[in-house]
Design a protein that fits this description.
single chain, mainly alpha, UPF0111_domain
Amino acid sequence: MRFRLTPRETSFYDMFAASADNIVTGSKLLMELLGADASARAEIAERMRAAEHAGDDATHAVFHQLNSSFITPFDREDIYNLASSLDDIMDFMEEAVDLVVLYNVEELPKGVDQQIEVLARAAELTAEAMPNLRTMSNLTEYWIEVNRLENQADQIHRKLLAHLFNGKYDAIEVLKLKQIVDILEEAADAFEHVANTVETIAVKES
């Protein structure tokens, strides 16, 4: 790590950790959605909406701090990209839950549970990694594992699409379910974007 003669604004680390912890909350709500009947889904969606708003607040706090700080712990562009990618994850998870409710989906197709399990694991890894930004230590395994999980999510997504187009579902149901599984795949991509940004930061700081 480069030696610095100037102090650094450290509150960013706490903000990133809070954002990641909130994403874990979102992933748990996704898991809860899997086992919920239709009557309970609206309430889960409401809690997910509250978590998404909390994520927005955390992101805005990072941007405000970024605009008001003369000295930052690492490149401003990387801070912006990291905060934005964390926010994207919550946005996609909230959108997926909302669509399940809005579309009155009776039963999610087999394989969605695997998508959500991948997201939950990526959320845990991300929450564990964010505090390590302070020292830039123990991060390599994090971004390697998240990239592996994203590849796994791609495979699950392709199998889900094949299942949706096998003739079992009518055309309207296919459109509804495809949009949901596509949004969950975008959440997996967003986790990878976070991991890639962390890798970029670590390389610059080494």
